[in-house]
Amino acid sequence: MEQNHISSRKSVVTHISSDSDFEVGSGLGGSGAYHVALKLAFNNLHRNSLSLLEIAEGALSLERLTTQSVCGIQDHTAASFGGLIRIRINRKGELTVIQEIELYEHFSKYIAPNLFLVGTGKFRESNKSLVRAQQPNSIRHYQKSLLEVEQYEEAIKSKNPIVYGELLEAHTLRKIKLGLVPEQAVEIMKVAKSVGAYGSKLIGAGNGGYCLISIDGNKFEELQQYFQNSVIRVTVGNVGVQRDDSL
């Protein structure tokens, strides 16, 4: 999310415009990034000295207040800090954020070039999926996902996009069994697998949005043919994750 223009007079904001590469409900954390940009704009306008975590927490409160949506702080924290981060939340709800600089460099260079996005054509609905997420089977799924964090980390450290993709696939298969993946996404993943994908995952909560596909980057053109040029390539750099339309 990129903030384009803010005009003010006597510290009163009169106009804010914004632009996004993706539509609302994409499941890519755009709303979190938008509200972080908004909170940062007000912070700079009033010359406050908020920390990155305070900006993330303020952005979360702002989104919950203005949209009445169900959301956690992970998207806002990622947008505020940037890069690859580790978020720890204790039983009191207190956050600790660790910026994984070396891991981010490995991810950018060896994992990200093999990741692509394909839209399901179905918008995510996080409020409706909350009930499903609170069911016992869903809770066990998320608990298992937490245990897989170290495996993802090891795949990145070992510069292995294949293992990374296989972890995405294992995660997805569990969600399919729980009925948390829409039919459109399942079909996309099957096609990607037939082309040689290492694995795929539905991004975000809410039973819709985009599929993240892990596949040899050299197969981009072949993947495009199957999905009628709707595959999105992303790049990871100093300003975060961006859509890449250079090819």
Question: How would you describe this structure to a colleague?
Answer:
This protein has 247 residues and is of the alpha+beta class. It is 47% helix and 21% strand. A hairpin with a 2-residue loop joins strand 8 and strand 9. The longest helix has 17 residues. The radius of gyration is 19 Å and the shape is globular.
Structure in a nutshell:
This protein is of the alpha+beta class.
The assigned CATH architecture of the largest domain is: 2-Layer Sandwich
Rg on CA atoms, Å: 19 Å
Task: Let me know the average pLDDT.
Answer: 81
**The CATH H-level homologous superfamily of the largest domain:** GHMP kinase, C-terminal domain
Notable characteristics:
247 residues, alpha+beta, Ribosomal Protein S5, domain 2, Alpha-Beta Plaits, 2 domains, two-stranded antiparallel sheet, 10 helices, 47% helix
Write the SSE topology.
Elements (H helix, E strand, L loop, with lengths): L1 E8 L2 E8 L10 H16 L6 H16 L6 H8 L3 E5 L5 E5 L1 H11 L3 E5 L6 H8 L2 H12 L1 H9 L3 H17 L5 H13 L3 E4 L7 E5 L5 H7 L5 E6 L2 E5 L3
